[in-house]
Amino acid sequence: MSEPDRPRTIADLAREVRSKNAGPFWVTMELFMRDAAGYATVADPAYLDAPVIARLYDVAADTIQIFRIPELNVVKISFPRPVVQGSLRDRDIHAGQHHVPLALFPLPVA
Question: Record's InterPro entries (predicted)?
């Protein structure tokens, strides 16, 4: 793969990166990786862990739950919503845009 074609973000390796409500108090993000190699990259706790998610989303690391599902090449991440779904300050009632910082997260340098 030439330098310009080299994957640079999680989105480059994923079939889909999405976020959604997990009830009115939680957000869940799912990384559906194209293959086992992409899964191995993003599922590696040395690369993607609770402190990384905490920095990306300004949430406490001890509230983050990460589920790694190798049989499906999926990583699922859940954390408390910044505001309750549907409340006055909720700007994304379906949590449909929360995945963007994670999708654009840079891959580790080889």
Answer: DUF4387 (IPR025496)
In a domain, 109, yes or no: no
Quick: pLDDT tens for 38-50: 999 999 999 999 9
Tokens of 100: 């963007």
Domain that holds residue 42: 3-103
- Number of domains the chain is built from: 1
Q: Is the pTM of this model over 0.90?
A: no
Q: What is the pLDDT of residues 60-77, one digit of tens each?
A: 999 999 999 999 999 999
Residue 99 class from Cβ within 10 Å (0-12 exposed, 13-18 middle, 19+ buried)?
Answer: buried
Q: Check which CATH number belongs to the domain holding 31 and give it.
A: 3.30.980
The pair phi, psi for residue 79, each rounded to 5°, is -155, 160
* E strand spans, the chain: 14-21, 26-33, 65-69, 74-80
